């Protein structure tokens, strides 16, 4: 069936069965690479996008549940030439190794910064707890988020 | 293959032909894993030039000055693209942006064997450095000929130009037109002077990161070829099982299903859309399963290995005369089976067309793969092209090889349509080869001089090297009909070693008896995981050193230095502990504690020393790592920040292994199938701070650094726990439950 | 161990409760409320306690789940400061470490016993029944002394709990004397000689230290447990604690073995996974000797009654009928839930329980089902085990209600839940952190 969703400010008509997880619509129908398949179980965060400003797992969110709520993906934040402040912070901190988790990390962190531009270290870590990184890039990811949150680079290291 | 070569030649320029060295059993690239790397034809040349000595297999300069560099090494997320680019840019003396780097493509790049074992900089980086130095030398000579000047009066300016003292200059593109690079390298082409490095040793931002931050196409998962179909395999819960009654007829009737592939016990569904393939897979998998292999070692864990037949390998047997013994330490150490835990489950794209098969794969061994998959699907190797395409970090042999072979089989059944096969999360956990469970046993003593008097060490392990070099190496080879038998597992000989990797201490101990009980039978399917056996061997050696130091009342740092003669090893230990503040560290008080550890990876790779401060919550056994300080000597660093990134990652991954990871299983299947049943380190559990100091070693040979932190980190943690609580923990993972049980109330 | 749970049955009931409580309390308080202080002591040295007593205390503290309420997020174990939201305001748990200023360092064993059994602080002030002294009053002195020994040998943590924020006049503690007169029933748990020693041990643990009724027994308007309806199901932190008596809604009768497995691992093959406030209980019980859990299970199973050997009814799965009646729920289930709970899903391949076995779907009250969907399930034991993501940010109340309607129709034979969207909205509100 044909469904209508708004992604990164643009209205799209997509032909998909209504239960299809948003992840596959973004990737396969709209050709967006940012959200990744990581587990399909809502446990790793690689597929994280924003729905109505909240970070969600697109792998377990049926496309028909989106309705009129706006979807934002990492492609909607900035481009290689015009990065958003958070993307730029990730670049400045070289906060990626394989990078597979990073788009999800950025979208989850952005949701926090949108709601609270000045979170403290504990709040950042708690908020990011749902997203997994296997390369062990956590320290750099935290530094990138702190950079945008205006916290000292080394955080509140105990 | 011909087509591709013609496409390359169409661009004109210097590239004349490939030098395809014959393949024979010779040098073991990639830490001795995988198949034989190409036979060395010029043993006098450095690195991978030994087997690919002709310059045009490495470098191509177009008339417009655009440079292409070819490497057989693959980007795995370790940043090798950027590091190799820096090496090439430095030795060609051009800006990094002037170079296009082509990596690991069986039709285009030199065969450098595997990208593994921290060999990429040592072999591949060294080859590119020397090939580029050769090319720069030839370009300079060509300019000299044109200007009728002495070559040694000419120089290059970092902008792809040769310059003369009078200010004249000639671009590389113009010079390249007069020059054939279809010549063999010489071993001693002048390298750039480290004092004047423009790119090497500087923190060049990684070239692959911007796309990864913005949703650019960066991974094999992002390939979308015209007419591409989506496939899923239909399987039992884990390796060694099969579905009793897969519901294939029901799957066939599902919307969008194009084909259900059946070949022996191998089954897969293929659909127009990805979600349709997943739905069909689930319908097909609605079945009980049966186990075909021996039951899993529920009660014994890795100690099962000690009850299986072994092949004995004497690693060290030294006799320095009996020394008086004062205190003796004995212990047995172990680690469980680990998952690679790639965040993105394995994925591959395959296209069978015009009698050939093209594979886009995240395998670390595309050169082995094009031979092995050819055997599997019944094509001559030259008809199979493998193009390495990055994906989520693999850290060894995860499912990337298997998924590509399976995609190839499906594609052969559906010629003309590209097939994208994506393993599901649970299939990755269930079917990938695990990192080996292992056991060690040590008896060591110190004499009245507080120096080690004798050292007896045993390690039990399966092979860490089951990478497919023939069709039988893929799990699917035993599912299809007719199938291919799995090859007998083989240990990797020293000096690389596998289960015995780093079992030979770099320290100077007298009277060493080090034995590797190689166990061919594999209770769980296993293969390479980052650092192979070095993880448990370093964990053991460095734990025992602390026990001996404690027994002798010697500071752990002083005790290590007293047994270490290698100056660079001493230097990293001193650097890391100085930066950590070891001398003034808080002493173990029941809660807080500090530990250190050291290893030189394989005793031939990068040096790494780690010091850390931790806190144990006595009520819960929970461990908080407050700070970690590392020092690493990787020879001349290509990009210091690239090394820091790798070592930081290694530290966190090793902490995750040591504190919480273990593949769980019942008698008939693995029960780790998701992130609830295989937890890894998350943000609230990572250290307060991690600092990595990279030693400056101008002009020294590259030493691979990607795996060097794995052993020392886990060992430093165990030593810090012992310092904090007095409890020596020897069996990983060191979960809060284990810590609590050891320390009591 | 929060007594003043949210038990709102309508918007104004608690006003009545307050007025009643206030009037009664004010009168009684004058006469009865005064309690003397017990003299402070110098903090005893950790060495003054027998090691075996300390070890035993550690185990009892796990059985009593003390650290769950007395540890704030990110805080030191037992140092208190955890906020407990109630309709009457927010209470903060006390610091149980032996810090003399902010903890119980100057408390004698007698003072500690009085607090546990009578709900009176060392200073003489009445404690709020968030400390479940309704149950702890049944604990034997030897056990209280062991707990005391364990607490007094902890590392002192200097950390004062924030002041409670309660609505007027509940900040006036003498009122609590009236509450106790009505609801505190001291005395040991009676021994039933016709039952096994294991059962009697279970009764002692469940009624006393385990304070299971704190959540699983309904409460009256004043927040006291209704003793005549013991274990008929209650409310805990916005979740519904199912009935543990004959009305237990499980699809398969609980056996002792199944309950032991559940209490120690958070999941049993014939029942669903522990969720919400039950998670920390499982975490605690995974760390005590199995015999104690077997005793608890023996007692609870006897409360539920019935014969586990009764013929096992086939499990309902009315997929088609449910999809016809709840088409939106069926679609949402297909994309959001079936990846784990549907046929052929990995979790099913691992033999995890079917949704037809889920107690929350069979309960007459949909609150816990709503919370499980909203908040998900955290792996209960050391971060390992069943893990379900929350859908609070992905799905609207209406959508979650649609899924719940579908689940109830598909996986049970029970009547539809009423007013689901309102239940979900309320659960969402109450599930938020205080």
TrEMBL record, chain A:
Keyword Iron-sulfur among record annotations: yes
MF-aspect GO terms: 2 iron, 2 sulfur cluster binding; isoquinoline 1-oxidoreductase activity; metal ion binding
Source taxon at top rank: Bacteria
Gene3D superfamilies: 3.10.20.30, [2Fe-2S]-binding domain
Pfam family, one: Fer2_2
Every 2Fe-2S ferredoxin-type domain range: 1-77
EC number(s) reported in the record: 1.3.99.16
Entries under InterPro entries matching the protein: 2Fe-2S-bd (IPR002888), 2Fe-2S-bd_dom_sf (IPR036884), 2Fe-2S_ferredoxin-like_sf (IPR036010), 2Fe-2S_ferredoxin-type (IPR001041), 2Fe2S_fd_BS (IPR006058), Beta-grasp_dom_sf (IPR012675), Diverse_Oxidoreductases (IPR051452)
Record bears the keyword Oxidoreductase: yes
Keyword vocabulary terms for this entry: 2Fe-2S, Iron, Iron-sulfur, Metal-binding, Oxidoreductase
Protein name: Isoquinoline 1-oxidoreductase
Annotated source species: Sphingomonas trueperi
Automatic annotation (TrEMBL), chain B:
Coiled-coil positions: none
Family annotation (InterPro entries): Ald_Oxase/Xan_DH_a/b, AldOxase/xan_DH_MoCoBD1, AldOxase/xan_DH_MoCoBD2, AldOxase/xan_DH_Mopterin-bd_sf, N-heterocyclic_Hydroxylase, OxRdtase_Mopterin-bd_su_IorB
Signal peptide extent: none
Single Gene Ontology MF annotation: oxidoreductase activity
Domain Aldehyde oxidase/xanthine dehydrogenase a/b hammerhead: 214-294
SUPFAM superfamilies: Molybdenum cofactor-binding domain (SSF56003)
Gene3D superfamilies: Aldehyde oxidase/xanthine dehydrogenase, a/b hammerhead (3.90.1170.50), Aldehyde oxidase/xanthine dehydrogenase, molybdopterin binding domain (3.30.365.10)
Protein name: CO/xanthine dehydrogenase Mo-binding subunit
From TrEMBL, chain C:
GO molecular function: electron transfer activity; heme binding; iron ion binding; oxidoreductase activity, acting on CH-OH group of donors
Cofactor stoichiometry and binding remark: Binds 3 heme c groups covalently per subunit.
Major subcellular location class: membrane
Residue numbers binding heme c 3: 337, 340-341
Subcellular location, record wording: Cell membrane
GO CC annotations on file: plasma membrane
Cofactor(s) named in the record: heme c
InterPro entries in the record: Cyt_c-like_dom, Cyt_c-like_dom_sf, Cytochrome_c-type_DH, Membr-bd_ADH_cyt_c
Residues annotated for heme c 2 binding in this entry: 212, 215-216
Organism: Sphingomonas trueperi
Bilayer-crossing regions: 12-34
The organism's place on the tree of life at top rank: Bacteria
Sequence ranges assigned to domain Cytochrome c in this UniProt record: 52-155, 197-304, 324-411
A Pfam family this chain is assigned to: Cytochrome_CBB3
UniProt keyword list: Cell membrane, Heme, Iron, Membrane, Metal-binding, Repeat, Signal, Transmembrane, Transmembrane helix
Protein's name in the database: Mono/diheme cytochrome c family protein
Binding site for heme c 1: 66, 69-70
PANTHER family for the chain: ALCOHOL DEHYDROGENASE CYTOCHROME C SUBUNIT, BLL4482 PROTEIN-RELATED
């Amino acid at each position: 069936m044909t469904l209508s969703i708004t992604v990164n400010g643009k209205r799209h008509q997509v032909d998909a069965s209504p239960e299809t997880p948003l992840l596959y619509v973004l990737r396969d129908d709209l050709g967006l690479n940012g959200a990744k398949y990581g587990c399909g179980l809502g446990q790793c965060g690689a597929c994280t996008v924003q729905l109505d400003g909240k970070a969600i797992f697109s792998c377990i969110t049926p496309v028909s549940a989106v309705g009129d709520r706006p979807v934002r993906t990492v492609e909607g934040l900035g481009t290689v030439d015009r990065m958003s402040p958070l993307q730029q912070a990730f670049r400045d901190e070289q906060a990626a190794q394989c990078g597979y988790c990073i788009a999800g990390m950025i979208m989850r962190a952005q949701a926090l910064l949108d709601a609270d531009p000045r979170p403290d270290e504990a709040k950042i870590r708690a908020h990011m707890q749902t997203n997994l990184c296997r390369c062990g890039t956590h320290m750099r990811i935290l530094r990138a988020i702190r950079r945008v949150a205006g916290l000292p680079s080394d955080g509140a290291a105990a | 293959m011909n087509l591709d070569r013609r496409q390359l030649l169409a661009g004109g320029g210097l590239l004349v032909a490939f030098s395809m060295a014959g393949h024979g059993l010779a040098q073991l690239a990639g830490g001795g894993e995988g198949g034989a790397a190409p036979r060395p034809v010029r043993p006098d040349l450095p690195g991978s030039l030994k087997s690919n000595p002709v310059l045009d297999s490495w470098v191509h300069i177009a008339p417009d000055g655009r440079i292409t560099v070819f490497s057989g090494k693959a980007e795995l997320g370790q940043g090798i693209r950027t590091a190799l680019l820096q090496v090439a840019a430095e030795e060609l003396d051009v800006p990094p942006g002037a170079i296009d780097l082509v990596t690991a493509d069986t039709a285009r790049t030199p065969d450098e064997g595997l990208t593994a074992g921290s060999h990429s900089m040592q072999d591949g980086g060294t080859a590119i450095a020397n090939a580029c130095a050769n090319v720069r030398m030839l370009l300079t000579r060509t300019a000299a000929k044109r200007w009728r000047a002495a070559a040694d009066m000419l120089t290059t300016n970092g902008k792809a130009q040769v310059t003369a003292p009078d200010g004249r200059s000639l671009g590389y593109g113009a010079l390249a037109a007069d020059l054939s690079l279809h010549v063999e390298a010489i071993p001693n082409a002048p390298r750039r002077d480290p004092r004047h490095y423009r790119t090497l040793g500087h923190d060049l931002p990684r070239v692959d990161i911007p796309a990864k931050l913005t949703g650019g196409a960066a991974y094999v998962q992002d390939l979308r070829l015209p007419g591409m179909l989506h496939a899923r395999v239909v399987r039992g819960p884990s390796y060694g099982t099969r579905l009793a009654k897969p519901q294939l007829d029901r799957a066939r009737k599902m919307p969008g299903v194009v084909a259900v592939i059946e070949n022996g016990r191998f089954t897969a569904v293929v659909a127009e859309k990805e979600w349709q393939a997943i739905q069909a897979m689930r319908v097909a998998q609605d079945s009980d399963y049966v186990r075909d292999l021996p039951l899993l070692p529920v009660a014994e864990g890795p100690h099962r290995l000690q009850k299986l037949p072994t092949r004995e390998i004497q690693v060290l047997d030294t006799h320095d005369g009996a020394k008086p013994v004062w205190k003796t330490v004995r212990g047995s150490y172990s680690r469980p089976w680990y998952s690679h835990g790639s965040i993105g489950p394995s994925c591959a794209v395959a296209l069978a067309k015009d009698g050939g098969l093209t594979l886009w794969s995240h395998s670390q061994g595309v050169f082995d793969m094009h031979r092995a998959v050819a055997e599997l699907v019944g094509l001559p190797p030259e008809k199979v092209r493998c193009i390495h395409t990055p994906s989520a970090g693999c850290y060894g042999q995860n499912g990337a090889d298997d998924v590509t072979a399976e995609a190839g089989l499906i594609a052969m059944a559906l010629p003309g349509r590209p097939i994208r096969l994506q393993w599901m999360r649970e299939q990755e956990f269930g079917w990938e080869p695990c990192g080996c469970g292992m056991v060690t046993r040590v008896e060591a003593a110190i004499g009245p001089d507080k120096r080690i008097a004798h050292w007896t060490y045993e390690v039990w392990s399966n092979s860490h090297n089951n990478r497919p070099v023939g069709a039988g190496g893929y799990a699917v080879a035993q599912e299809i009909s007719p199938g291919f038998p799995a090859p007998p597992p083989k240990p990797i000989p020293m000096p690389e070693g596998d289960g015995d990797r780093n079992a030979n201490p770099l320290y100077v101990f007298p009277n060493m008896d080090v034995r590797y009980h190689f166990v061919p039978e594999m209770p769980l399917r296993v293969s390479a995981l980052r650092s192979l056996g070095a993880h448990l061997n370093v964990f053991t050696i460095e734990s025992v050193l602390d026990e001996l130091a404690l027994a002798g009342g010697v500071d752990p740092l002083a005790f290590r230095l007293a047994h270490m003669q290698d100056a660079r090893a001493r230097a990293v230990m001193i650097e890391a502990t100085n930066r950590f503040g070891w001398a003034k560290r808080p002493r173990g008080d029941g809660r807080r504690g500090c530990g250190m550890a050291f290893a030189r990876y394989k005793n031939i790779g990068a040096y790494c020393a780690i010091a850390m401060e931790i806190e144990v919550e006595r009520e819960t056994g929970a461990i908080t790592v407050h700070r970690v300080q590392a020092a690493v000597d990787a020879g001349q660093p290509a990009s210091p920040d690239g090394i820091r990134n790798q070592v930081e990652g290694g530290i966190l991954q090793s902490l995750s292994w040591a504190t919480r990871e273990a593949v769980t299983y019942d008698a008939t299947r693995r029960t780790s199938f998701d992130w609830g049943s295989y937890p890894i380190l998350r943000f609230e559990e990572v250290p307060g701070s991690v600092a990595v100091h990279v030693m400056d070693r101008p002009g020294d040979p590259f030493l691979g650094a990607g795996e060097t932190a794995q052993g020392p980190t886990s060992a430093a943690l165990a030593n810090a726990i012992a310092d904090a609580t007095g409890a020596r923990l020897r069996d990983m993972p060191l979960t809060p439950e284990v810590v609590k049980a050891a320390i009591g109330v | 161990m929060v007594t003043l749970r949210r038990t709102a049955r309508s918007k104004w009931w608690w006003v009545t409760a307050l007025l009643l409580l206030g009037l009664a309390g004010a009168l009684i308080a004058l006469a009865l409320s005064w309690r003397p202080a017990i003299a402070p002591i110098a903090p005893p040295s950790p060495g003054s306690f027998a090691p075996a007593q300390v070890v035993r205390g550690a185990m009892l503290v796990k059985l009593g789940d003390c650290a769950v309420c007395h540890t704030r997020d990110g805080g030191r174990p037992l140092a208190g400061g955890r906020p407990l939201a109630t309709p009457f305001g927010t209470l903060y748990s006390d610091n149980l470490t032996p810090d003399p200023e902010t903890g119980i360092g100057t408390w004698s064993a007698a003072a500690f016993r009085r607090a546990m059994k009578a709900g009176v602080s060392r200073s003489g002030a009445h404690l709020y029944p968030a400390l479940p002294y309704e149950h702890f009053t049944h604990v034997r002195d030897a056990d209280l002394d062991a707990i005391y020994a364990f607490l007094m040998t902890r590392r002192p943590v200097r950390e004062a709990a924030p002041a409670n924020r309660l609505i007027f006049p509940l900040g006036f503690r003498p009122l609590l004397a009236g509450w106790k007169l009505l609801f505190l029933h001291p005395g040991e748990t009676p021994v039933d000689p016709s039952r096994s020693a294991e059962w009697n041990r279970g009764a002692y643990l469940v009624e006393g230290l385990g304070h299971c009724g704190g959540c699983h027994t309904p409460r009256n308007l004043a927040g006291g447990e209704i003793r005549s309806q013991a274990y008929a199901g209650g409310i805990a932190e916005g979740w519904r604690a199912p009935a543990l008596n004959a009305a237990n809604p499980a699809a398969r009768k609980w056996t002792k073995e199944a309950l032991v497995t559940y209490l120690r691992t958070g999941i049993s093959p014939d029942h669903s996974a522990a969720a919400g406030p039950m998670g920390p209980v499982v975490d605690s019980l995974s760390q005590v000797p199995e015999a104690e859990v077997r005793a608890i299970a023996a007692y609870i199973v006897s409360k539920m009654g019935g014969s586990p050997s009764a013929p096992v009814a086939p499990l309902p799965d009315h997929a088609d009928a449910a999809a016809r009646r709840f088409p939106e729920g069926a679609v949402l289930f297909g994309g959001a839930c079936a990846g784990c709970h549907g046929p052929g899903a990995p979790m099913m391949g691992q033999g995890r329980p079917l949704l037809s076995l889920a107690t929350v779907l069979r309960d007459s009250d949909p609150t816990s089902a709503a919370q499980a969907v909203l908040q998900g399930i955290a792996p209960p034991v050391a971060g390992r085990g069943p893990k379900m993501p929350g859908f609070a940010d992905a799905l609207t109340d209406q959508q979650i209600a649609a899924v719940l309607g579908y689940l109830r129709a598909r996986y049970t034979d029970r009547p539809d839940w009423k007013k689901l969207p309102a239940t979900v909205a309320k659960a969402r509100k109450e599930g938020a952190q205080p």
